[in-house]
Specification:
1% strand; single chain; 73% helix
Length: 280
């Protein structure tokens, strides 16, 4: 996946272009700079939001597919610690056993966390089936299609609130973009098509009128501050555990999940053998 900063670069460069139609008035130069900065910010917001959706979807798949394996490893670690404590009677081993068991006690929201794979009573049948290599329903997938991506980008470029010329228009655009973001997060291409038709029927954006230099400078400063905030969001996403994992295989996240699953299954087998030896 292209990082938000990389997608931003091509658009930002346009702001440096020198007009070829003679020397414009200072206000005209500022207005062009503001428009270029607005478009650059919109492109960057699209890149950040696209990456956020990818991280969110990968996080969901990660918990759905691998959550039961992590739970199984925690349970085996607790059983191993308890078996070792029972054998040695050492107070330190008993303390470690208590700590290991505490890590597998029911936690608030665990059913929601693992999206139907387990609750406070243990693994659901689907999770047990997966751990024993039996057929299991695939995890719910929400990955926007190419069509949804294209529609989303087009809608944001046309209806972005930063293109509004007054508070009323901004409120209309913000409400519309909220619906666009929700549809894109669900990968709902049909709804995005409906939204595109709705926007096409709406009032055309007002033309930008002449602006005073002070207002344009203030606008440029606001755009720069928003870009800085978005950069922090992008950095947080990229440096998160899920974001870092996703960047390892941006074009084939399913394969990355399979590799992690293989490693966890090997860990489960090793723990089961260790537990059997202690109990034997």
């Amino acid at each position: 996946m292209t990082s938000p900063e990389a997608e931003q670069g091509g658009v930002a460069g346009e702001a440096q272009a020198t007009p070829q139609d003679g020397a414009p008035r200072p206000e005209e130069r500022l207005e062009r700079a503001v428009r270029a900065a607005e478009q650059a910010l919109i492109e960057y917001e699209i890149a950040v939001e696209t990456f956020r959706v990818e991280v969110e979807n990968f996080s969901r798949l990660h918990h759905q597919k691998l959550g039961p394996m992590y739970a199984r490893l925690d349970e085996l670690d607790a059983q191993i610690a308890e078996a070792r404590a029972a054998r040695t009677g050492d107070p330190e081993d008993c303390r470690k056993a208590d700590e290991a068991r505490a890590r597998v006690l029911p936690m608030p929201g665990v059913e929601e966390l693992f999206h139907g794979w387990m609750d406070g009573e243990g693994l659901f049948p689907e999770a047990v089936a997966m751990l024993t290599d039996q057929p299991v329903r695939p995890p719910q997938r929400v990955r926007p299609s190419d069509e949804a991506r294209k529609l989303y980008r087009e809608l944001v470029r046309k209806a972005h609130p930063d293109l509004a010329q007054d508070d009323t228009e901004r409120a209309r655009r913000e409400e519309f973009i909220t619906r666009v973001n929700a549809a894109y997060a669900r990968g709902d291409a049909p709804l995005l098509r409906e939204l595109a038709e709705e926007w096409a029927k709406g009032p055309a954006p007002a033309e930008r009128g002449p602006s005073r230099s002070e207002e344009l400078y203030a606008r440029l400063e606001w755009l720069a501050q928003r870009k800085e905030l978005l950069s922090l969001v992008a950095k947080e996403l990229e440096e998160s555990a899920i974001g870092s994992m996703l960047r390892l295989a941006p074009d084939d996240p399913d394969r990355l999940l399979e590799e992690i699953a293989e490693k966890l299954l090997a860990d489960v087998s090793q723990r089961e053998a260790e537990l059997a030896e202690l109990l034997g």
